């Protein structure tokens, strides 16, 4: 019984305790905020989802970056392998290029002038000769006798007169110059067509070159485009002349190449000798603020000196002397009271070392040096060696050889054509270069007088070939077959061949004019020659056949 009563009391007490009125008031609001809790849980879930997406994106970006790095590493590795292969191919290409270049030089040295055996090439060429009636031997002989042969005596008398006057004029020039400050003038030398006996067109003009040297203690140090230093392609054939003291750099002193301290003194060179005021260099005809000889300054000095010399000796002569051309500073003209005149060129030059190659300031009446890079660049002339070569070869040729006759006839035809259609880039120097090549290539017996017609055809065909290829090489530069008797400097024999037609490669208008003039000359050749040919007997004329080439 007590146990049962205890159980009933316990149940009552439990019911009272668990009655809702006994819960705090705030606990009774839980059911009212359920939606807010759910909303917060959703927001939390959404933020967690966004955070998860962000983390997944970062992981994906890291994986992409890793893949990019791995790919870049692979590309770098491949580039390294490709570079190694490229370097190998580059080296191999350079080796092949050098071998080809060496072969080309050897081939040019041995074959660039071996044109004597190219009879087939000569036959293939000559397209411009189709339909052209070439004058035969009788017509050429008559033309040469009537128009050209009679001028030889006139040239000899004119050379003798001009040389005598030039010697007197230069002697007077030396007397008016200051030996301690002015340039020292040497004896003049005759060069060109008048002294090689092939000039045909009047007026005859003698070309004289006058070597000069600086006063003591100075000297000239010459540098050419083939001396080892790099020269641009447009400066090939040129050189520079530096005015130095005779003892400068002779001992290999570095005082001019390094800057010494104020308390240091070179024991080999005094302070006076090491300093060169600009006025002193200008007095030595150098370009402003340099040690390089200025061609324009030299020509101004030479003109003034010649004028002073003539004023000193003019009373001895019964003629007047004047400068004839403004664009040719060395062009002089002797005017007699009778109205006749004699023209000649007196051009100062500088000797290259101990040879007969000379630096020339300008070419009278020539377009060879029409575009000189600057007034400190001097063109090299080989005129003395050209004259000697012709004289040397002439000794081995048959009597009355036709080599000079060929050049005279071709020069005459070219001059006449230029007088009709205007001047072109083709000059008499180009024609002489063609003859020099053929003289070296053909045997002596091929220049017998009866072979004038054949050799003249060879010259025209060789010139046509050069015009077609735009290549006419200088005879001496790069020619390893120059006779040793000439004593020609080896440095120019080993140089790259100099293409005289190179200026026309880029100037297509001049090249086109030159080609057109050549073709017009061929078409007018017979008419020009017949115009100056004496009458040929009818019996002889009936035996003449004019066959087109």
From TrEMBL:
Chief location of this protein within or outside the cell: membrane
Segment forming the signal sequence: 1-20
GO cellular component: a single term: nuclear outer membrane
Pfam families for this protein: Mab-21_C
The keyword Cell membrane appears for this protein: yes
GO MF annotations, alphabetized: protein kinase inhibitor activity
Entry annotated with the keyword Lyase: no
Ranges in coiled-coil conformation: 38-72
All residue ranges annotated as the Mab-21-like HhH/H2TH-like domain in the record: 404-477
Subcellular location: Cell membrane; Nucleus outer membrane
Keywords carried by this UniProt record: Cell membrane, Coiled coil, Glycoprotein, Membrane, Nucleus, Signal, Transmembrane, Transmembrane helix
Membrane topology qualifier: Single-pass type I membrane protein
Alphabetized SMART domains for the sequence: Mab-21
InterPro entries for the chain: ITPRIP-like (IPR026250), Mab-21_HhH/H2TH-like (IPR046906), MAB21L/cGLR (IPR024810)
Function: Enhances Ca(2+)-mediated inhibition of inositol 1,4,5-triphosphate receptor (ITPR) Ca(2+) release.
Similarity remark: Belongs to the ITPRIP family.
Descriptive protein name: Inositol 1,4,5-trisphosphate receptor-interacting protein
Organism: Vireo altiloquus
């Amino acid at each position: 019984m007590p146990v049962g009563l205890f159980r009933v009391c316990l149940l009552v007490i439990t019911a009272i305790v668990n009655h809702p009125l006994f819960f705090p008031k705030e606990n009774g609001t839980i059911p009212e905020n359920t939606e807010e809790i759910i909303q917060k849980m959703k927001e939390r879930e959404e933020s967690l989802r966004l955070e998860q997406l962000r983390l997944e994106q970062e992981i994906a970006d890291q994986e992409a970056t890793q893949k990019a790095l791995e790919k870049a590493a692979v590309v770098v590795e491949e580039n390294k392998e490709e570079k190694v292969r490229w370097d190998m191919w580059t080296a191999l290409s350079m080796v092949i290029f050098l071998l080809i270049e060496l072969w080309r030089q050897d081939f040019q040295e041995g074959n660039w002038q071996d044109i004597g055996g190219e009879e087939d090439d000569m036959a293939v060429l000559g397209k411009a000769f189709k339909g052209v009636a070439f004058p035969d031997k009788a017509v050429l002989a008559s033309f040469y006798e009537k128009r050209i042969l009679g001028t030889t005596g006139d040239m000899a008398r004119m050379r003798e007169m001009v040389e005598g006057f030039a010697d007197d004029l230069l002697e007077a020039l030396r007397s008016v110059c200051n030996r301690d400050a002015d340039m020292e003038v040497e004896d003049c030398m005759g060069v060109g067509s008048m002294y090689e006996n092939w000039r045909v067109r009047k007026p005859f003009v003698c070309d004289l070159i006058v070597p000069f040297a600086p006063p003591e203690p100075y000297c000239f140090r010459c540098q050419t485009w083939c001396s080892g230093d790099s020269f641009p392609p447009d400066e090939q054939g040129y050189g520079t002349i530096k005015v130095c003291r005779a003892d400068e750099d002779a001992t290999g002193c570095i005082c001019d190449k390094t800057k010494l301290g104020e308390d240091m003194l070179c024991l080999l060179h005094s302070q006076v000798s090491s300093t060169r005021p600009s006025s002193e260099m200008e007095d030595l005809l150098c370009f402003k603020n340099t040690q390089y000889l200025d061609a324009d300054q030299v020509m101004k000095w030479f003109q003034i000196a010649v004028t002073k010399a003539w004023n000193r000796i003019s009373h001895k002569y019964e003629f007047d002397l004047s400068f004839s051309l403004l664009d040719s500073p060395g062009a002089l003209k002797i005017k007699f009271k009778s109205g006749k005149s004699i023209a000649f060129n007196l051009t100062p030059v500088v000797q290259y070392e101990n040879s007969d190659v000379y630096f020339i300031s300008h070419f009278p009446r020539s377009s060879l040096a029409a575009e000189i890079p600057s007034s400190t660049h001097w063109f090299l002339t080989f005129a003395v060696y050209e004259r000697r070569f012709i004289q040397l070869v002439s000794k081995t040729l048959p009597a009355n050889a036709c080599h000079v006759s060929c050049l005279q006839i071709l020069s005459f035809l070219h001059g006449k054509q230029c007088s009709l259609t205007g001047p072109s880039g083709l000059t008499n120097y180009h024609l002489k270069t063609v003859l020099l090549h053929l003289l070296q290539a053909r045997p002596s017996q091929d220049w017998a007088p009866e072979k004038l017609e054949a050799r003249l055809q060879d010259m025209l065909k060789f010139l046509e070939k050069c015009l077609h290829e735009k290549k006419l090489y200088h005879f001496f530069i790069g020619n390893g077959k120059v006779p040793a008797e000439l004593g020609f400097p080896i440095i120019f024999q080993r140089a790259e061949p100099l293409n005289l037609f190179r200026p026309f490669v880029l100037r297509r208008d001049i090249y086109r004019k030159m080609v057109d003039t050549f073709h017009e000359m061929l078409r007018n050749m017979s008419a020009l020659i017949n115009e100056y040919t004496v009458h040929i007997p009818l019996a002889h004329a009936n035996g003449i056949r004019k066959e087109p080439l």
